[in-house]
Amino acid sequence: MENNTNVEYDDKLGHKRIRVRRMTFSMRLIHWINVVSMITAVITGLYIAHPYYQTFMADGAVDKYVMAWNRWGHFIVAIIFDVTSIIVSYLFFFSRFEKHYKKVLPTKKNIIEFWEVFLNLVTLNRRKNFDSSHNDSFNAVYFIIFHALLAWMLFTGLQMYVHGLASGESSIGAWWPWMLHLITDWTVPFSAWVVGSATETASIMDVRILHHLSMWVIIIWVMFHIYYQVWRTIFWQEGDIAIVVGGSKFMKVGEDGNKDVSVK
């Protein structure tokens, strides 16, 4: 295994373990940048949709630009999400550490592994017939769904942004609004179709509604992601939750699906 650090030892319970590298420093850094950005995006997004606090100063909130600051913060973290998504998309295909795209290809091996990981979850670890030393197909597909949701938030967010440039001009020229319209206008009829527009024609409000609803889908995704990583840590006892901190896990060797794993 290319991501094996070849450190073998016996734990206090007599299990033979090896320390396995699973995330590089750059991937861990991107993960935590996304965590902070997502928390900020949710807080500011909720305020933009329905202002739920005001300044405690003597002047009114409107004089302290509370909405403006929330919109600015939302826009900045959206840009950060865009940049990290581009980097992650590149690493998904061309990373020298682990090429994750190979795990989402509909091959017989990947389909079987996806099913086995799912069975492992629903049977509470009573069945474990897969190698847990690498990123499995179940997590890889889950990873794709998350970034597809982020891409959707990107397109709908840019559509709402360009809607504010009603003049067709921007500080960097007319080409910028034109390009944004070109790549995001499709979100308007699609959003109207999904939410069931109350009007005869699709409008930007349909995009706002679906953008807001998609946020709750992402929150549910994050909740399951955290739950599942804690679940794996408890049931597998391989320190999976430590991967996003130190980059490694401590895998049992010669048990369940790891019977064929050995130290090189």
Please tell me about this protein's structure:
The protein has helices at residues 25-49, 66-94, 108-122, 137-163, 175-184, 187-195, 204-236, 243-246, and strands at 4-10, 16-21, 248-252. It is mainly alpha-helical and 264 residues long. It has a domain at 4-24 and 97-258. The protein has a 3-stranded antiparallel beta sheet. The termini are close together.
Descriptive keywords:
264 residues; mainly alpha; three-stranded antiparallel beta sheet; 8 helices; 3 strands
**Percentage of residues in DSSP E strands:** 5-15%
Order of helices and strands: EEHHHHHHHHE
Gyration radius, to the nearest Å? 23 Å
The largest sheet is: 3 strands, antiparallel
The CA-CA distance between the termini, in Å, is: 8 Å
Based on secondary structure, the structural category is mainly alpha
Q: Give the count of helical stretches.
A: 8
User: Which bin fits the share of residues in helices?
Assistant: 55-70%
**Rough outline:** elongated
Beta strand count: 3
- What is the typical, i.e. mean, pLDDT? 86
With strands numbered from the N-terminus, the spatial order across the biggest sheet is 1-2-3
Low-confidence stretches: 1-5
Quick overview:
This protein is mainly alpha-helical. It is built from 8 helices and 3 strands, in the order ββααααααααβ. The protein has a domain at 4-24 and 97-258.
